[in-house]
Amino acid sequence: xxxxxxxxxxxxxxxxxxxxxxxxxxxxxxxxxxxxxxxxxxxxxxxxxxxxxxxxxxxxxxxxxxxxxxxxxxxxxxxxxxxxxxxxxxxxxxxxxxxxxxxxxxxxxxxxxxxxxxxxxxxxxxxxxxxxxxxxxxxxxxxxxxxxxxxxxxxxxxxxxxxxxxxxxxxxxxxxxxxxxxxxxxxxxxxxxxxxxxxxxxxxxxxxxxxxxxxxxxxxxxxxxxxxxxxxxxxxxxxxxxxxxxxxxxxxxxxxxxxxxxxxxxxxxxxxxxxxxxxxxxxxxxxxxxxxxxxxxxxxxxxxxxxxxxxxxxxxxxxxxxx
Length: 323
Prior knowledge:
The protein has one domain (16-319). Helix content is 79%, strand content 1%. It has helices at residues 9-40, 43-68, 70-85, 96-113, 115-136, 148-168, 175-206, 208-230, 249-267, 269-291, 298-319, and strands at 41-42, 236-237. Strands 1-2 form a two-stranded antiparallel ribbon. The protein is globular, with a radius of gyration of 19 Å.
């Protein structure tokens, strides 16, 4: 069985770029869903519609895969049986709601904050909540002591998020809204860590593809309900844009989850998380430099740099055996 202890050093080195790619996929999905939201109309209605499109398209693709793949069909059947028998608590399979919140926050905040600031806030939320998930034993490995590498990375990630809040609130006229927008991806990132912990426990019982499919079912359902609520709020929808790439967000979501499932068996949770964070931040800054350079200020680069220092420092501490 392939594990971080049995994987060869050559395999680990060869697959390291894939962990960066995982983070890059998250940043690309944020760009796509943010752009789709801005083209679909105004208000929460358009932002949530973009999230529904992303999650819904992913659900359609995954459902087709499950129908065509016998092993995945058996996993889904096992999931349903364990829920009926009560051996799998219902609360353990609602992690997809956090995924829905994350995708919705992409459409709500990235048009204003930019991809780089959005990702830095997400990373801060993920890093802090990961400490809580490990400490409380919500993940598949049970209770895990807070490690010095992860604590180091989390502290610098939070410092970076504070700078993002300052950057977002530099315009006095929009300070309140800017700070609120910076808070949303922070919460969404925290929810992602909870989702990963729950997913790990479910996957250990029913398998990775059934877990992924269930996440998209739950997330899409939650987003559809939220979308209906937004029709009571200000906003409007316009005709869907025709650019095909605006509808690939769900595909990047599936690629992120599928690659993570393989990489975690080779590198472990902490190493995968650190490399993925680096990939998110690097890709996000590059995207904003190309697409929206006006959204990058001095504090944006400082925040991204702090996050990367936290990642490199955490990996260095871990390599030296610091726990």
